[in-house]
Amino acid sequence: EAGVAQSPRYKIIEKRQSVAFWCNPISGHATLYWYQQILGQGPKLLIQFQNNGVVDDSQLPKDRFSAERLKGVDSTLKIQPAKLEDSAVYLCASSFEGVGTEAFFGQGTRLTVV
Amino acid sequence: EDQVTQSPEALRLQEGESSSLNCSYTVSGLRGLFWYRQDPGKGPEFLFTLYSAGEEKEKERLKATLTKKESFLHITAPKPEDSATYLCAVRPTGGGNKLTFGTGTQLKVEL
Hints:
The complex is a heterodimer.
Chain A: E1 5-7, E2 10-13, E3 19-24, E4 31-37, E5 44-50, E6 53-56, E7 65-69, E8 75-79, E9 88-95, E10 104-105, E11 109-113
Parallel strand pairs in A: 2-11
Antiparallel strand pairs in A: 1-3, 3-8, 4-5, 4-9, 5-6, 7-8, 9-10, 9-11
Chain B: E1 3-7, E2 10-14, E3 19-26, E4 30-38, E5 45-50, E6 56-59, E7 62-66, E8 70-75, E9 84-92, E10 100-101, E11 105-110
Parallel strand pairs in B: 2-11
Antiparallel strand pairs in B: 1-3, 3-8, 4-5, 4-9, 6-7, 7-8, 9-10, 9-11
């Protein structure tokens, strides 16, 4: 079974530039998550989609971060403009719809803002 | 606010030396407690889900247990390949499918 695919794996940008990350979830998974993991910390949820709709974006810095999930499959996460503190690993995860289902994670995109 | 605290932050074991990792949590209601393993440069890999106090699950050298306030991940006779960061996460009731993670325990198993 194919896992969650993310690209790119690494990205280095200057502050105030923009960047976009792409995620393709496991086939059939209705729920898609974007997490931010700062070095030495656990992942923090940025946004959760159920099919095309946003379920939770309470911790998404909406002045600079945006995300979309078209046709209930692939998703993109964008940062514009980037700040130094955005340096982190951005993890995409997906799960089946339903209570208690585990989330499966991609390998992540390591972003360095200089 | 939901909180997850993991201890110790780091643990160094000799091969074969059993130990336990702790995950303490505070949630209004628990819909599931999850353990993940994360290797350097990779995303978290799912290990276990526990739903109610008293529940236990095992996989190879790992055994997870759950009480009303904490969970333990017991590692029996660890091997160097068990070296990784172990993350605990909770899914509260009424929180959709959101997971709140702890900061993890970094485990190093030496020969």
